[in-house]
Amino acid sequence: HGEYSEVIVNTPDGPVSVGKHHPVAVVAGPCSVENEEMIVETAKRVKAAGAKFLRGGAYKPRTSPYAFQGHGESALELLAAAREASGLGIITEVMDAADLDKIGAVADVIQVGARNMQNFALLKKVGAQDKPVLLKRGMSATIDEWLMAAEYVLAAGNPQVILCERGIRTFDGKYTRNTLDLSVLPVLRSLTHLPIMIDPSHGTGKSDYVPSMAAAAIAADTDSLMIEVHPNPAKALSDGAQSLTPDKFDRVMRDLSIIGKTV
Ligand code: PEP
Ligand code: MN
C-alpha cells in the first residue's frame, strides 16, 4: 500500500504515534465512566497490560432517553484523575460542541461517535480545535461518506484524524450487535493516508468475540484497536456484554503481542 500518515498524540507519558511503522496503539477502558474507583483501577490495569490510551464516556449517546446518559462534567474530572494516576492519554466523546472546551481540557483525543459522524456543525468545531480527532464510522455510513466526514475536520484546519471502524448495520443482528467491517483496512489504505482504528467491542457486541476480531484486525494491518474493559462487566451501566474484565484484557494483550507489536 501507499504512504500514509501518523497521528501523534501528546499523553502524560509522552508522545504516542498512531499510524505507519508504529506498534498497534491500544485504547482500552469502560464504555462509561461510572465512579472514581472503577476508572482509576481500570486505567492502571489496562496500562499494565500495554494499553496507551484510556477510553471512557462522560457524555453518552444512548438510544433511550431513560437509559444512563453518562455523568457529564463530573466524569471529566474522574478522567483527569485517571490520566494523572496512570499516565495514559484520554479518549472521550463529544456530543455537543458547547462541551468541547471542557472536554478538550481533559482529553488527549476527541471522539466523535458513530451517531454524530455526519453532524457537520460538530465536525467543523472539532476541526477548529487542535486535539486529534477519533472519527467513528456511522452505523449506516458508506466509506465515501465517512471519508467526507473526515474531510470536514481536515478542511476546518485539523489534520490529526484517526478513522475508527466500529461495525455497521447489516441484515442479521441476531448473533452480533453489528457487522465488523474489517475489509475497510485494505480499502481505506488504498483511499486515504489517515490512520485506522478497529473497535471489535462495538463491532461485535459480545466480549467472547472480541479477541479473535482484534487478532484479525492486527493481521489485516490495523494501526490501532479500541477495546472496552470493565472491572465488573455484569454490573456495567452501559455495554457490559461486550466488555472484557481486566484479567481477560491482559490475556488478550499477551496473545496479540504474538501476532503483532502492540506495545
Ligand atoms: C462508544 O465508544 O462507547 C460508543 C458509543 O461508540 P459508537 O459511537 O461507535 O457507538
Ligand atoms: Mn460503548
UniProtKB/TrEMBL annotation:
DAHP synthetase I/KDSA domain residues: 14-252
GO process terms (BP): aromatic amino acid family biosynthetic process
GO molecular function terms listed in the Swiss-Prot or TrEMBL record: 3-deoxy-7-phosphoheptulonate synthase activity; aldehyde-lyase activity
Signal peptide residue numbers: none
Enzyme Commission number(s): 2.5.1.54
Protein name as it appears in the record: Phospho-2-dehydro-3-deoxyheptonate aldolase, subtype 2
The entry's keywords: Transferase
